[in-house]
Design goal:
Elements lengths: L9 H8 L12 E5 L2 E7 L7 H17 L6 E6 L8 H9 L2 E6 L2 E4 L2 H4 L10
Parallel strand pairs: 2-3, 3-4
Antiparallel strand pairs: 1-2, 4-5
């Protein structure tokens, strides 16, 4: 999940801040073993926050998860902005069992951000 300038993304930086060790992969943006198990993170680019974008990202995460020797314990779509449709987060979670999180002015938005970045309280780290 490298940003255009070559540095870590906000999500990757938050994982590092939580003393977790994210791993880059040629298949998924970031994978990380946390105290809650293996999590996969797929970053959607700026302007990719509609339900269709989220559905496409969730499908990609499920396909990647299917190729693993053992399934991941958590799947996360990472948005650079809040979702375009408020209802889309619940639908993606309920249908695909994929969590959606996004960067906000005060930290991270979405459900389970404390789990996504460990339990050290970094969900509001900027």
């Amino acid at each position: 999940m490298q940003e255009a300038r070559g540095g870590p993304s906000c999500a990757e930086a938050s994982l590092l801040w939580a003393d977790l060790q994210p791993a880059d992969s040629s298949v998924v943006d970031v994978s990380c073993v946390t105290q809650h198990g293996l999590f996969l993170y797929e970053a959607l680019g700026a302007g990719c926050s509609t339900y269709a974008d989220l559905r496409s990202g969730a499908t990609r995460l499920l396909e990647i998860n299917h190729t693993l020797p053992a399934p991941a314990d958590g799947l996360y779509l990472v948005l650079s902005e809040p979702p375009a449709e408020d209802w889309s987060v619940d639908t993606i979670r309920d249908v695909f069992r994929v969590n959606v999180i996004w960067r906000s002015p005060t930290g991270w938005g979405g459900e389970n951000t404390h789990t996504a970045f460990g339990s050290s309280g970094v969900s509001n780290h900027q």
